[in-house]
Amino acid sequence: MEAMTFTSEQWARHERFVEMVRAAKQRKEAWVKKMQAQWAAEDQMRKDAAARHYYDIEEE
Amino acid sequence: MNALDTNRINVNSPYKVWAEELVLHFETENGIRYAVDFDSEDSLLYTAYWLNLTNESHKSSPSDRQIPKTLICIVEEFFRQNPDILLYMCSTDNNQQAQRARLFLRWFNGYEQQQKYVLRAADVPGIDPDGKPTREYVAIIVPRTHPQMQAIIDLFDEEIAMFQTNKPQNV
User: Fold this and answer.
1) CA dihedral B153, B155, B161, B165 (to 10 degrees)
2) How far apart are CA B26 and CA B56, in angstroms?
3) Could you say which DSSP state residue B157 is in?
4) What is the ipTM, given to two decimal places?
5) Chain B residues 108-137 within an 8 A CB cutoff of chain A
6) Nearest alpha-carbon partner for B146 in B134, B137, B155
């Protein structure tokens, strides 16, 4: 099979494509961490509220 | 990006979708919450967004057919409001990106979806957070009604072909 050849302009665009994928991955990882931290904080609040409710009932 | 209408999504979505600021969320019957976000990509010639999906609860999810159905409802609303391009990159968590890519392709290669969109996916070399080489699975979804659909797909195919070719020294 004949090897494909690309121009320097195509290679320059390709470098930008590679960089775009890397940058998008970093942004996605930061977003995932933020979403998971937010959920963990909300989950902790729900657990704290449930525990308070339980102790309130016990005290009654 | 034009905001998505959650009322419209919820007409067909098996799980109720709600929005908090610009992030969409839904919770499965197993109590697992997902977040969906669209991240604008400014470095392409065409208007494009990365579709981000994450399991916020970070708990393992049993197989659940309602998850892809919900995601497809969100993507359909995205294209109703934004007739642009979607890009998707699988998470490399636990090095399971190949399995995730197969799952994603199955979700979006249904008969109904094929009538509406052209989907291309490829694995490309990447670097993991530890700086080690890894494989990234990247997909592009273009509505068939996009006026430059063929040019976009040709460009994506060309980029992927270039990953298979060694760059000559003199360019």
Assistant:
1) 180
2) 10
3) H
4) 0.85
5) 124, 126-127, 129, 136
6) B155
Q: Of B37, B58, B138, which has the smallest distance from its Cβ to A21's Cβ?
A: B138
Decide if pLDDT at A2 tops 60. Answer: no
Integer Cα distance of B42 and B44 in angstroms:
6
- E strand or H helix that includes residue A26: helix A8-59
Q: Which residue in this structure is represented by tokens 């080489």?
A: B133
Burial A14-36 (b: 16+ CB within 10 A, else e): beebbebbeebbeebeebbeebb
Number of Cβ pairs < 8 A linking chain A and chain B:
70
Look up residue B88 and give its two tokens.
């998707």
pTM for this prediction:
0.86
B57 Cβ contact list (under 8 Å, min separation 6): A39, A43, B31, B32, B33
How far CA B95 is from CA of B58, B106, B115, B148, in Å, comes to: 15, 19, 32, 35
